[in-house]
Amino acid sequence: PSDAPWWHDAVIYQIYPRSWADGDGDGVGDLPGITSRLPYLRDLGVDAIWLSPFYVSPMHDAGYDVANYRDIDPVFGSLTDADALIDTAHDLGLKVIVDLVPNHSSSEHEWFRAALAAGPGSPERARYVFREGRGENGEEPPNNWPSVFGGEGWTRVTEADGSPGQWYLHIFDTTQPDYDWTNPEVGDEFASILQFWCDRGVDGFRVDVAHGLVKEEGLPDWDGPMQMLDATDTSAEAALPPGDEESARIHETGDGPRPPMWDQEGVHDIYRRWRSLLDEQPSPERILCAEAWVKPESRLARYVRSDEMHQAFNFDFLDTHWNAEKLRAVITTSFRENDAVGAPTTWVLSNHDVVRHASRLGLDQSLPRPNGIAADQAQPDAALGLRRARAATMLMLGLPGSSYVYQGEELGLPESTDMPHEFRQDPTFHRTEGKEIGRDGCRVPMPWVKDAPSLGFGPSDRTWLPQPASYGPLAVDQQDGVEGSTLELYRSLLSARRTDRLGLGSAQWHKLSGGDVIAFVNASADGSRRTLVVVNLGADPVELPEGAMVTHASGDRVDDGRVPTDVAVWARI
Ligand code: TEU
C-alpha cells in the first residue's frame, strides 16, 4: 500500500556524531559538520538519519552517559546547531531520529550528584538503585550482577561523613548509574524529555537498552549461567549447548529462566505510555525504535505490538553467520513473529557496537560470537569480507521492511583492527583489561577525500581515533561516480528500492532457495512488479531461472545467467 506510514519501508542512516564530519577541526565530529554534509545523504538516497547521542556528557561511554538530556555537549555544538541540523534535514526530505538513553544517566547528571549529596533514604537516592551492601559492614555488593562492560555491576559510595556507604547499580560503566523506573518521577522526567525533542521537530527516538529499564523486584541474585547476563544474548537458549533439545524448545517458545535485569514485563508499560505521548503529536508520525537484545524473536516482537514501539532492531539477522540455512531461518521467523503482531521488520547489519560487517563476514564463520573480535583473534580476510558484505547488503535491502545503515558501510569500510591500544577509549576495553578489544574499531572518523588532511573528515589533520591506511582509497571522492564502487552500488540499490517500493512488498521463498542459496521473490501487492533476490553462499555458481533479467549484482559480472560464490543479484521476473 502506497499510503503506508513513512517508517514501514524507511532506510535510516546512522550517524555517529563524533566520527562523521568535523566542522571546527578539533578532531571530533560535530553538528555543524553533519549539517554541511547532509546533501551527501540525500544523494545516497536514504529516508532518515538516526544520530547517536549528542547531549551534554563527560563521554565516559562516548555520550551514552548523559549529564543533561535537554542540551548539546559543547564538543558537538549548541541547541541552535541542533535546530539548524533538523531544519536542513527536513528541507532535504530527510527525517531525524535522535537517541534516547533512559536506562541510566551519567554520574555527573544533576540528579545523581543530588543523590550522592542527599544520603541514604532520601527521595534523591530513590531515583536510582541504591542499596545497602551485604556481608560484614556491607562490604559485599547487594547482589551478584556483573556490569556488561566487565567487573561488578555495583559501586560503593562514600557518605558525607567519610564512611563507606551504600552501593548503586550500574549495568554498564561505573559512571552510568541505572535509574529506578519504579519511581514515577523517572517516568515523568522522560515523558518531558520526549516532549522537549518532539517540540524541536524530531521524527523519532532510538531507545537505548530498551530491554533493561525495569529490573526484577527484589533484585535477586542470578543463579543461572553468567553468560546469559551479557546484554547481547539474554536467551536461556544461549546457555545451552547447540543442538540441545531443551535449547530447541526454548528457541521455539521463549520459555526458560529470564535474567533479572533483562526483558522484564514492566518495560512494556513504559513504551505504552511513550507511544500514546507520540500519537498525540501533530503528524507526520513520530517513531520509537527499540535497541533490545532480546531472544527469541517471539519475545522481541512484543516490543512492536501496536500500542508500543514502531520498530525493533533485528539483531538475530546481524548476529547470524554467513550461512544460508541459518539466515533463511532468521528471515522466516522474523516475518512470522512480526506478522503475528502486525509490525514490519527492521533489518540491520552494523552499528557502533559491533564489528563492521565488511570485516565480520571475513572472519572465520565458526567463531561463536560473530559480532565481536577478541584481542587474540585472527585478522579478517578483507577481500572476502567486502565481497560478502556487498551481497549481505543486497539481501537486506531486498527484503520488505525498514533497514538501518551504519555510517561508512556504504563505502565498504572495514573494522580498524590494528589500532594501537593507547588510542582505545571504549570502557569495555578498559574494564576487561584489554581482554575484550572493545568497539573503537568501528567508530573511526569517516574518510571523505583521499588527499586531504584527516581524509576530509575536518579542516585539520586531527582525528580522535587514528584512521587506518586502508581508509584513504575508500574515501567518498574515490568512489563517487565510479562504476562498481560500493558507494555506487548502495546508491543504485537505494534508488531501485525506492522506485519499486521493495520495502513495502511481500516476500515468498523462490524454488532456488535451499542448501547454500537464499532466494525469494519480493512482489508488490498488485502483482505488477516481481523482483527475484538471489544470494549464493555456496561454492558452485547458481543458475538463474530462464527469462530473469538481472538489474543489480553485488560482485563480478553475472555471465550466462549464473550467480558466482558470495554474490547477490536482483532480477526482474
Ligand atoms: O548498547 C547496549 C548493549 O547492551 C550492547 O550493545 C553493548 O554496548 C555491548 O554489549 C558492549 O560490548 C547501548 C549502546 O548502543 C552502547 O553504545 C552503549 O555503550 C550502551 O547501550 C550503554 O548505554
From TrEMBL:
It comes from the Bacteria. GO terms for biological process: oligosaccharide catabolic process. One of its GO terms (molecular function) is alpha-amylase activity. InterPro entries: GH, GH13_cat_dom, O16G_dom_2. Residues 14-443 form the Glycosyl hydrolase family 13 catalytic domain. Residues 236-263 are annotated as: Disordered. Gene3D superfamilies: Glycosidases, Oligo-1,6-glucosidase, Domain 2. Pfam families: Alpha-amylase. Residues 246-255 have a biased composition (Basic and acidic residues). Belongs to the glycosyl hydrolase 13 family. This is Alpha-glucosidase.
